Amino acid sequence: xxxxxxxxxxxxxxxxxxxxxxxxxxxxxxxxxxxxxxxxxxxxxxxxxxxxxxxxxxxxxxxxxxxxxxxxxxxxxxxxxxxxxxxxxxxxxxxxxxxxxxxxxxxxxxxxxxxxxxxxxxxxxxxxxxxxxxxxxxxxxxxxxxxxxxxxxxxxxxxxxxxxxxxxxxxxxxxxxxxxxxxxxxxxxxxxxxxxxxxxxxxxxxxxxxxxxxxxxxxxxxxxxxxxxxxxxxxxxxxxxxxxxxxxxxxxxxxxxxxxxxxxxxxxxxxxxxxxxxxxxxxxxxxxxxxxxxxxxxxxxxxxxxxxxxxxxxxxxxxxxxxxxxxxxxxxxxxxxxxxxxxxxxxxxxxxxxxxxxxxxxxxxxxxxxxxxxxxxxxxxxxxxxxxxxxxxxxxxxxxxxxxxxxxxxxxxxxxxxxxxxxxxxxxxxxxxxxxxxxxxxxxxxxxxxxxxxxxxxxxxxxxxxxxxxxxxxxxxxxxxxxxxxxxxxxxx
Length: 493
Description:
- The protein has 8 helices and 22 strands.
- By secondary structure, the protein is α+β, with helices and mostly antiparallel strands.
- The two termini are 47 Å apart.
- The model is unreliable at 111-125 (pLDDT under 50).
């Protein structure tokens, strides 16, 4: 704390007695519910000493300031320095959990109101919250009561417990009062929408042929990454529904089928890719990627996609983040669209063909791919030995042969058909693990859709792939790749 005399401090506080003007940042309301033991002997009467308490609070952005402004006050140089030191030592504002950083500013900061809180010509305050002082309440404003010091408060009183403003809570309770004797309630006005959520507009405008649409997922309970296929399937159904409308229009790019219901060849129709982008094991974003492009009619429809309906669980809200004509527009924001050499599975890779066996049950094999290296992971997961892991992934223990249409063979075929170069190194990954340490066995993931084709076999696989050159994402392979299965994320090196 600053070394200053009590008289100097009182001189500064006296300047702050008049009710200030306030600039209010965007804010929303919230509350917590918890039990409060009112009875002092609660430990002996646990069953009867708990009362449900609604604990209300207001949330404001960390980078948006609350500005208090006294337009008719001026401070001497030494008073400014003292007030600056006092504010530097202010740990919280109001409640102890409301941690804050306070500072003195010489000029009114730019808050989007022409850098002024008061119009000197018309005398009209431009602050969001101001004392009413007998003025009018505008149609878009509301009146609230604010606790301020008494106008005639004696600021010459010593700054101790006898001061009319420095009263402990227990003393107020004993005296049956709710505020100190040196304070009073006055009427302020503020905008009616002070606590309305502020929704930003998507930062990508509609264009003739968008290929990427991004959403934020929100809801009471976010789905686990294990539900990726389920959420991707629901996203496809919702996208087709909002586009089809009452006329039940059909969209080849959204459905992956032509007008006769036949599946389209290739992979130029829409991918629905739910992702966990904060590493907590919960799906929080969803990307629709359509290489063949989405015209303005599709864009308008998908811009109105607001939720995904889930049976036996809460619906998911979808908040549109933006649209882009190319993948490059999202590079830097979304790793899936980056260009990297090394990629690893974040959802299981599922086979589209049956691994080939002889009538005796033995593998049908083919020579090990020339120039390919296979690394063994440091952690084998549920596999007891390295040999068990290799056999599960279709590789002989001597690494001289691979099973025909086995997991490794199909992975290389999928990469070739999607136009990727042959990888230099492939490493089996026995389980999913996020950046924050959340782990799941691949068997825990949903691996087949309720309707439509099923995977060739139900066994899931995971890989880490290293290419000789950087390849552009998204890398999504195998069965269910249009719904989030077989999805890879880059490893930054």
